[in-house]
């Protein structure tokens, strides 16, 4: 899964993580994890992150109405910020013998290129290989002009492919 998933107890402590979350936490670049939970690499980010987590946990307890929130975590390395979505988790979502998480964090790294996107998009949306390669570059933030140059196609061909997409 290309998205890091971190399940937190109502007190903010980590209950479970997936492989991608472990990778991101292990980098200590924007998102930090310890025995107390998660934090941002910079103080202002940590305060905002803790606030979103606390608000989401209150919602699960019936003491609030916050639906969570989205924030960008700046990275000391200078790479593009991590994107973090904080959301409350409903009760009884997991097996009763598991510590019940109250909050889930979905963390994406814009620097990590998803594997197999071209093939998956071609199958899902019935795209040609050329159309799916263009779509992949556009999703990564390229302009149509730069994507056309990278693909070695004319601007008009790229525009035609974009219309088909």
Structural description of this entry:
By secondary structure, the chain is α+β, with helices and mostly antiparallel strands. It has two domains: 4-108, Beta-Lactamase, CATH 3.30.450; 117-164. The chain has helices spanning 19-27, 43-60, 117-125, 129-139, 144-151, 155-164; strands at residues 4-8, 14-17, 31-34, 37-40, 69-73, 82-88, 103-108. The strands form two sheets. The chain has a five-stranded antiparallel sheet with strand order 2-1-7-6-5. Strands 3-4 form a two-stranded antiparallel ribbon. Helix 4 (129-139) packs across helix 5. The mean pLDDT is 85.
Keywords:
Beta-Lactamase, alpha+beta, elongated, 165 residues, 6 helices, 2 domains
What is the third-level CATH name, the topology of the largest domain? Beta-Lactamase
The counted number of beta strands is 7
Poorly predicted runs are none
**Residue-averaged pLDDT, rounded?**
85
From N to C, what is the helix and strand string? EEHEEHEEEHHHH
How much of the polypeptide forms β-strand, as a percent range?
A: 15-25%
Anisotropy-based shape:
elongated
Instruction: Tell me the count of domains.
Output: 2
> Radius of gyration in whole Å, from Cα?
19 Å
What class do helices, strands and sheet pairing give? alpha+beta
């Amino acid at each position: 899964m290309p998205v890091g998933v971190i399940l937190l107890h109502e007190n903010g402590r980590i209950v479970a993580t997936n492989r991608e979350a472990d990778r991101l936490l292990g980098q200590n670049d924007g998102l930090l994890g310890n025995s107390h939970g998660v934090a941002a690499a910079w103080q202002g980010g940590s305060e905002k992150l803790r606030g979103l987590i606390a608000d989401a946990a209150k919602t699960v307890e019936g003491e609030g109405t916050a639906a969570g929130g989205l924030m960008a975590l700046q990275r000391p390395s200078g790479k593009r910020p991590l994107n973090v979505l904080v959301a409350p988790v409903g009760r009884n979502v997991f097996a009763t013998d598991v510590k019940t998480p109250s909050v889930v964090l979905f963390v994406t790294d814009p620097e990590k290129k998803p594997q197999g996107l071209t093939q998956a998009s071609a199958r899902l949306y019935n795209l040609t290989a050329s159309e799916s390669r263009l779509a992949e570059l556009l999703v990564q933030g390229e302009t149509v002009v730069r994507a056309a140059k990278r693909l070695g196609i004319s601007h008009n061909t790229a525009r035609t492919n974009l219309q088909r997409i």
